[in-house]
């Protein structure tokens, strides 16, 4: 034993032993990490939560100027049948006035139908403006009462702490007045 | 070990095989010498421990009746209130117990801040305390989600959303925390699991906290080290009886709230079942989070390089950093305050700033309950600035520039006027065995 240790010290054995320590340690770390990964991943959305991920909406009964709320993946989705005046108002804004510059056309498939996730991008409250009589904020769109974020008629952030525009979910028109979200 | 004796044969039999009785005697008994000048502010540590036990006992009973599912949680809590035998009592004790736990712990912390209990050699003891505070906050936050009322849901939503401020990974982390795309059934389930677990983790850290405490013993109102056995009295019976008296007083207040104003510290909105499609007009956290909530909302501006428009930290992230920073400064406090004098009694200038900090914390709490706009926003911003200035600027500067008052030569001196020399013999006698 003692002899081996001495020879190791004298020759190149010391670095060989260091290498073995390092290699074993690294393998151990990789092994531990791959064992922990499934445990962490188990907390991500499960298959049946993901399976609920699409919603069909019939838009025919929604009159011009009317706003409805549907649920998609547990979150409210705002659908706004916009009037020509509202569309024009959304287009009239210069992009460099916007905190999160985005053109109105980029946010819609058909300009009269604005579809967005109704969750404030600040900390997740549901903005007001869907029901008649609720405040629509200073830009005629939506107003989040939690910390005072104002959104315009395109759902873009104009004033307040929210950093980005109300997000547009993936959706497509499967018929003239039917959309599938998700 | 040497000091422990018993006439009881069973106790001696056990003690010989596992010396648990002498261990207890050394921990909270006659073999644990404590400074003889501790004031009532030293009662709050044991009170916190007892409150933790009350929370665990009532919590386990609630868990036997509670259903962690979004469709049943609210009703199961109403069932506890109406149908379960004494359910109302157990729930009101648990609900208000959380508030009293924080009252006790906040007093305990301010005691430490004033008497410099965080200074050497008690830095680790102090840091373990801050860990306990963080764990308590997480536990109380998740417990509040369980009854699944409007405040439960929206509080959970807003607070979990804080993590979305983390650059690049924010969204991924939040979805992982939720186990879905919003606060929903998976979230409620995991919060229940963690709410059950964390109090026991707290018990573990409390044991470490007490272990660290027993290494050097309690600090004291004068803040100087005890010089010998004449400065100490055995924990039992002197402080066990004092702690028991304090507990009695505490329970009078606790019972008054539980029986007469059980919902005083709560929010009426939490008796409305959670509705993911409608946010209440005012989301306010429980009172014990209000100062931190005020700090969170005080950062309404982006932080960047002046005059270039380059934003380094967006307001949302800045608020989150400030809120967690408010606790993080407590971790490094032992290295910010370098003054060798512990007790605020001998630090005339420190004392003024300390009183201001106390007022500041209350003002922050009030500001946190008001809408974050106009005057209250400005007040919250000034108070946030003072909070950080106290720890990061004032304490380091005072360590250098303040001239402390002369320290007494022993902890007996201020009590026994004239130095205590003449009387030292008398009170020292009963302690000589220690
Ligand atoms: C550090 C100790 C603890 C704290 C600070 C704490 C805090 C809280 C809070 C604030 C609530 C909400 C009360 C309400 O508004 O209704 C709650 C509920 C609850 N807690 Fe705890 N808790 C603790 C320990 C425990 C333990 C050990 C259990 C055992 C499993 C438990 C089980 C429950 C249950 C089942 C509920 C839901 C019923 C209800 O809302 O009253 N808690 N907790
Ligand atoms: S959550 Fe909408 S402004 Fe804060």
The major beta sheet of chain B can be summarized as: 2 strands, antiparallel
**What's the CATH superfamily of the largest domain in chain A, by name?**
Rieske [2Fe-2S] iron-sulphur domain
Q: What is the N-to-C succession of helices and strands of chain B?
A: HHEHHHHHHHEHHEEHHHH
pLDDT averaged residue by residue of chain B = 92
Q: What is the helix content of chain A?
A: 25-40%
Helical segment count of chain A = 4
Task: Using the alpha-carbon principal axes, give the shape of chain A.
Answer: elongated
Task: Provide key terms for this protein.
heterodimer, A: 182 residues, alpha+beta, Rieske Iron-sulfur Protein, 2 domains, three-stranded antiparallel beta sheet, 4 helices, 28% helix, B: 434 residues, mainly alpha, two-stranded antiparallel ribbon, two-stranded antiparallel sheet, 3% strand, disordered C terminus, binds protoporphyrin IX containing FE, binds FE2/S2 (inorganic) cluster
Topology (SSEs and partners):
The complex is a heterodimer of chains A (182) and B (434).
Chain A: H1 2-10, H2 13-41, H3 47-51, E1 55-58, E2 67-72, E3 75-81, H4 84-91, E4 113-117, E5 140-144, E6 149-152, E7 157-159, E8 171-175, E9 178-181
Antiparallel strand pairs in A: 1-9, 2-3, 3-4, 5-6, 6-7, 8-9
Chain B: H1 9-17, H2 20-28, E1 33-35, H3 44-63, H4 73-82, H5 87-115, H6 123-145, H7 150-161, H8 170-178, H9 185-216, E2 232-234, H10 235-260, H11 290-298, E3 303-305, E4 310-313, H12 315-336, H13 348-369, H14 374-401, H15 425-428
Antiparallel strand pairs in B: 1-2, 3-4
Helix pairs in contact in B: 3-5, 3-9, 3-10, 4-5, 5-6, 5-10, 6-7, 6-9, 6-12, 11-12, 11-13, 11-14, 12-14, 13-14
What would you note in describing this structure?
The complex is a heterodimer of chains A (182) and B (434). Chain A is of the alpha+beta class. Chain A has two domains: 2-41; 49-181, Rieske [2Fe-2S] iron-sulphur domain (Rieske Iron-sulfur Protein). Chain A has helices spanning 2-10, 13-41, 47-51, 84-91, and strands at residues 55-58, 67-72, 75-81, 113-117, 140-144, 149-152, 157-159, 171-175, 178-181. Chain A has a three-stranded antiparallel sheet with strand order 1-9-8, with no helix packed on it. Chain A has a three-stranded antiparallel sheet with strand order 2-3-4, with no helix packed on it. In chain A, a hairpin with a 4-residue loop joins β6 (149-152) and β7 (157-159). Chain A is elongated, with a radius of gyration of 28 Å. With 434 residues, chain B is mainly alpha-helical. Chain B is 61% helix and 3% strand. Chain B has 15 helices and four strands. In chain B, the strands form two sheets. Chain B has a two-stranded antiparallel sheet with strand order 1-2. In chain B, strands 3-4 form a two-stranded antiparallel sheet. In chain B, α11 crosses α13 (348-369). The longest helix of chain B has 32 residues, at 185-216. The two termini of chain B are 12 Å apart. The relative contact order of chain B is 0.12. The A-B interface holds A 40, 43-46, 49, 69, 71, 73-76, 119, 122-126, 145-148, 161, 163 and B 154, 157-158, 160-162, 175-182, 184, 186, 190, 276-279, 281, 283, 297, 300, 314-316, 372-373. The site of FE2/S2 (inorganic) cluster has 13 residues of chain A, from loops.
């Amino acid at each position: 034993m003692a002899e081996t240790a001495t020879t190791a010290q004298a020759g190149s054995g010391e670095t060989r032993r260091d290498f073995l320590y390092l290699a074993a340690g690294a393998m151990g770390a990789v092994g531990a990490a791959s064992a922990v990964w499934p445990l962490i991943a188990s907390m991500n959305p499960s298959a049946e939560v993901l399976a609920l991920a699409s919603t069909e909406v019939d838009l025919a009964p929604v009159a011009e100027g009317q706003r409805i709320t549907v649920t998609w993946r547990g979150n409210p989705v705002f659908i706004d049948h916009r009037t020509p005046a509202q569309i024009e108002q959304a287009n009239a804004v210069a992009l460099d006035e916007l905190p999160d510059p985005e053109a109105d056309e980029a946010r819609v498939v058909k300009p009269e139908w604005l579809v967005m996730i109704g969750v404030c991008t600040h900390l997740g409250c549901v903005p007001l403006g869907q029901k008649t009589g609720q405040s629509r904020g200073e830009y005629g769109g939506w107003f989040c009462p939690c910390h005072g974020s104002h959104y315009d008629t395109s759902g873009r952030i104009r004033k307040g702490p929210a950093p980005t525009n109300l997000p547009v979910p993936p959706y497509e028109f499967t018929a003239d007045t039917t959309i599938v979200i998700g | 070990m040497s000091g422990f004796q018993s006439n009881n044969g069973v106790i001696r039999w056990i003690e010989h095989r596992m010396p648990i009785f002498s261990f207890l005697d050394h921990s909270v008994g006659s073999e644990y010498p404590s400074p003889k000048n501790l004031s009532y502010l030293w009662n709050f540590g044991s009170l916190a421990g007892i409150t933790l036990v009350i929370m665990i006992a009532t919590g386990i009973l609630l868990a036997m009746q509670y259903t962690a599912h979004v469709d049943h949680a609210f009703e199961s809590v109403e069932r506890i209130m109406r149908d379960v035998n004494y359910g109302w009592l157990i729930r009101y004790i648990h609900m208000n117990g959380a508030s009293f736990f924080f009252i006790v712990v906040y007093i305990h912390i301010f005691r430490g801040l004033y008497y410099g209990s965080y200074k050497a050699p008690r830095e680790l003891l102090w840091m373990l305390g801050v860990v306990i505070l963080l764990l308590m906050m997480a536990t109380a936050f998740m417990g509040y989600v369980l009854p699944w009322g409007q405040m439960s849901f929206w509080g959970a939503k807003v607070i979990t959303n804080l993590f979305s401020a983390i650059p690049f990974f924010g969204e991924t982390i939040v979805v992982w925390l939720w186990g879905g795309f919003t606060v929903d059934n998976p979230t409620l389930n995991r919060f229940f699991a963690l709410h059950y677990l964390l109090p026991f983790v707290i018990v573990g850290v409390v044991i470490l906290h007490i272990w660290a405490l027993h290494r050097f013993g309690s600090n004291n109102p004068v803040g100087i080290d005890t010089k010998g056995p004449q400065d100490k009295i055995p924990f039992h019976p002197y402080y066990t009886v004092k702690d028991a008296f304090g507990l009695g007083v505490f329970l009078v207040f606790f019972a008054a709230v539980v029986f007469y104003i059980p919902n005083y510290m709560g929010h009426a909105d939490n008796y409305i079942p959670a509705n993911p499609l409608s946010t209440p007009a005012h989301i306010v956290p429980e009172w014990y989070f209000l100062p931190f909530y005020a700090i969170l909302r005080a950062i309404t501006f982006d932080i960047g390089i002046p005059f270039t428009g380059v934003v380094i930290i967006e307001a949302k992230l800045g608020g989150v950093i400030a809120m967690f920073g408010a606790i993080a400064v407590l971790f490094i406090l032992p290295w910010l305050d370098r003054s060798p004098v512990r007790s605020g009694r001998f630090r005339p200038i420190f004392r003024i700033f300390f009183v201001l900090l106390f007022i500041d914390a209350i003002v922050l709490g009030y500001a946190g309950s008001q809408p974050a706009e106009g005057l209250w926003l400005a007040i919250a911003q000034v108070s946030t600035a003072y909070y950080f200035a106290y720890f990061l600027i004032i304490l380091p500067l005072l360590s250098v520039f303040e001239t402390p008052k002369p320290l007494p030569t022993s902890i007996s001196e201020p009590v026994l006027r004239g130095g205590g020399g003449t009387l030292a013999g008398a009170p020292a006698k009963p302690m000589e065995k220690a």
